[in-house]
Specification:
416 residues; alpha+beta; BirA Bifunctional Protein, domain 2; Rossmann fold; 2 domains; eight-stranded mixed sheet; five-stranded mixed sheet; 14 helices; 21% strand; elongated; binds histidyl-adenosine monophosphate
Length: 416
């Protein structure tokens, strides 16, 4: 048998109910904040991610699914959503829409990662991007919207960590200071950190190796190197979050793994397993970097699989399955025709109804209705057709009553 690829998952019907539930909550909340859905291609020019996500990032260097198509073009499966959304924003002239422009998405992403808990090769991101304002208020509104999403999903085991990584100017000074701090001990760092030293030294702060964490303990903090404007921006964000009573921790080690970030960056981390459920931040230079006009922007994305894990842990008793409302059983060929018309009629009124389509015995039909946890069963035989009345049984209580099954459509009131 041909099996699924490592790092991919099948989402079976029971699971997809949870997916749909979360997506519907997210859609409702995002729309209340003025977001509209965008869908962009899975496959893009490789260059988009090299320029957008950054040549020196792990995502581009080690994790991308890239290949030459039959026409000799270098293409890649998207490893994240922001670069594609920004490309679509520029290419479709969305900057002419009223600002701020707010877009959300739910799309599969591909990264060739070491597969482990919370880390797959195909995963889905629920994300949002906001274009057109430099104001700290956009940062706060974005974080507030995420808070609302977690609240609406009754997710409590989660904490918000924020940081500012400044603008290119403050970062230049900071990187010099950081390298100066690391250089004398560089040999003691892990191999990955050593390779990051020249290309992407800030990512050394993100290393999970104990020895590197220890070495990083007294490293200079980016927050001490922010220029006046970036400092002010971050102060405003924090003050407004305080006013909104949104709890957060400042984590100077959040640097994020993608190159486009500026100023505010944030992560929502699961208290249960320490996994980052959602990450995002401001990226004021990316639209210009990808060929658009200078346009500040901010956004985030949550790994759906990780979000579902915390959602399930926080809602162990939630039942989402929709029971069959009515099962129509029949005895005999004429009753089969009658029952077929009856379920068609019920379905046209938006009622979840089923009948046997396997030619089962009446006993087997009842068994099926029971297994599918139907709320009601109506049984049709010759007698019922003649009298135009039938017995409806509530399978939960065992209660029975007579209803008319004449020509008019049945309604839910008939079963109440
Ligand atoms: P990211 O931090 O690379 O940011 O990914 C966002 C989230 O996607 C992570 O916090 C995690 O929940 C999930 N995720 C990432 N990689 C995997 C994986 N291999 N398996 C399962 N889940 C994963 C971005 O992608 C940015 N585009 C977010 C953003 C949007 N920033 C601004 N706008």
């Amino acid at each position: 048998m041909v099996q699924k690829l490592k790092g991919t998952r099948d989402i079976l019907p029971k699971e997809s109910e949870v997916w749909q539930y979360i997506e519907s909550k997210a859609k409702e909340i995002f729309e209340n904040y003025g977001y509209k859905e965008i869908r962009v291609p899975v496959i893009e020019n490789l260059e988009l991610f090299q320029r957008g996500v950054g040549e020196a990032t792990d995502v581009v260097q080690k994790e991308m699914y890239c290949f030459e198509d039959r026409g000799g073009r270098k293409v890649a499966l998207r490893p994240e959503g922001t670069a594609g959304v920004v490309r679509a924003y520029i290419e479709n002239g969305l900057s002419s829409e009223p600002s701020p422009l707010k877009l959300w998405y739910h799309m599969p992403m591909y990264r060739y990662e070491n597969v482990q808990k919370g880390r797959q090769r195909e995963f889905n991101q629920l994300g949002a991007e906001l274009f057109g304002t430099e104001s700290y208020m956009a940062d706060v509104e974005t974080i507030e919207m995420v808070e609302q999403l977690f609240q609406s999903l009754n997710i409590k085991d989660i904490e918000l960590n924020i940081n500012s990584i400044g603008c290119t100017e403050c970062r230049k000074k900071y990187i010099e200071a950081l390298k100066e701090y690391i250089r004398p001990n560089l040999e003691s760092y892990c191999e990955t950190c050593k390779t990051r030293f020249e290309k992407n030294p800030m990512r050394i702060l993100d290393c999970k190796e104990e020895k590197c964490k220890e070495l990083n303990k007294n490293a200079p903090k980016i927050l001490d190197y922010l220029c006046e404007e970036c400092k002010m921006h971050f102060e405003n964000v924090k003050n407004m979050l305080d006013k909104l009573e949104i709890e957060y921790k400042i984590d100077p080690n959040i640097v994020r793994g993608l190159d486009y970030y500026t100023k505010t960056v944030f992560e929502f981390v699961s208290k249960l397993d320490g996994l980052t459920v959602l990450g995002g931040g401001r990226y004021d230079g990316l639209v210009e970097e990808l060929g658009g006009a200078k346009t500040p922007a901010i956004g985030f994305a949550s790994g759906m699989e990780r979000l579902i894990d915390v959602f399930k842990n926080n809602n162990p008793d939630l039942k989402l399955e929709k029971n069959m409302h009515i099962f129509v059983a029949y005895i005999g060929e004429e009753a089969n025709i009658y029952a077929t018309k009856l379920v068609k009629n019920l379905r046209q009124q938006g009622i979840y109804a089923e009948k046997d389509i396997m030619g089962r015995s009446i006993k087997a039909q009842f068994k099926y209705a029971d297994k599918k946890k139907a709320n009601y069963v109506i049984t049709i035989g010759d007698n019922e057709i003649e009298t135009k009345t039938a017995t409806i049984k509530n399978l939960q209580t065992g209660e029975e009553k007579q209803i008319s099954i004449g020509d008019g459509p049945l309604t839910t009131i008939d079963f109440a």
